[in-house]
């Protein structure tokens, strides 16, 4: 079995920034074997950063089954970063994509893995990005999905669409590698992917993109303001915040834009407090 690492690949060297600024996040993985296999899947595609959110088995990186399934990717497994929450896993991330088992009516923009990879290629050049995968049994919660900038869905055989977690990681890692090494900058022809890539290219050179935790604070602030305005009824919120998240996710928020929205929310709260 060939476990050699082809670090002499000049294309990899040119785009090393993209490979190192990309993290793969597994939320509450149940099986140590899947964690090891995910580490192997990453390494075969030139990635190395694996983050685990509350894995069911403590100290999973030293579990014999995980080590066996890593099959030579011991370095990736040993350097796994374990955190208690998805918010912690996303620290410093400015763009993220969630893998979901099915397409959802609401939530962030939805792309094929190839279109998502085209967008990720540009976003990874301008800062930290994350790919987020759910638990083997329950997948990702709506709250976890809405924390991400976009979602993707692997269009598997509808009669048997049950992809193993590590296999799903492999599919996305492959698509990312293909996009990262596509030095002529072409995309798969998906308008959404091309548009977001162009938008991110100009935004990345122009301004600093907002980090995940800053965006979450903005939504909390905005929600408080909309409740104070009585525009949002907390007892019957419907899908208002989900739709607003989707709107903002499409735009790719810069730090300065987040500050503007928070400034608006702050003044709404000041005015409503005064008149109340």
UniProtKB/TrEMBL annotation:
Single Gene Ontology MF annotation: methyltransferase activity
Gene Ontology biological process terms from the UniProt entry: methylation
Domain named tRNA/rRNA methyltransferase SpoU type: residues: 23-174
Main location: cytoplasm
Sequence intervals crossing the membrane: none
Annotated catalysed reactions: uridine(32) in tRNA + S-adenosyl-L-methionine = 2'-O-methyluridine(32) in tRNA + S-adenosyl-L-homocysteine + H(+); cytidine(32) in tRNA + S-adenosyl-L-methionine = 2'-O-methylcytidine(32) in tRNA + S-adenosyl-L-homocysteine + H(+)
Pfam families: SpoU_methylase
Subcellular location: Cytoplasm
PANTHER family for the chain: TRNA (CYTIDINE_URIDINE-2'-O-)-METHYLTRANSFERASE TRMJ, TRNA/RRNA METHYLTRANSFERASE
Self-association state and partner proteins as the record states: Homodimer.
Protein name per Swiss-Prot or TrEMBL: tRNA (cytidine/uridine-2'-O-)-methyltransferase TrmJ
Organism, scientific name: Paraburkholderia podalyriae
Lineage: Bacteria, Pseudomonadati, Pseudomonadota, Betaproteobacteria, Burkholderiales
Gene that encodes the chain: trmJ
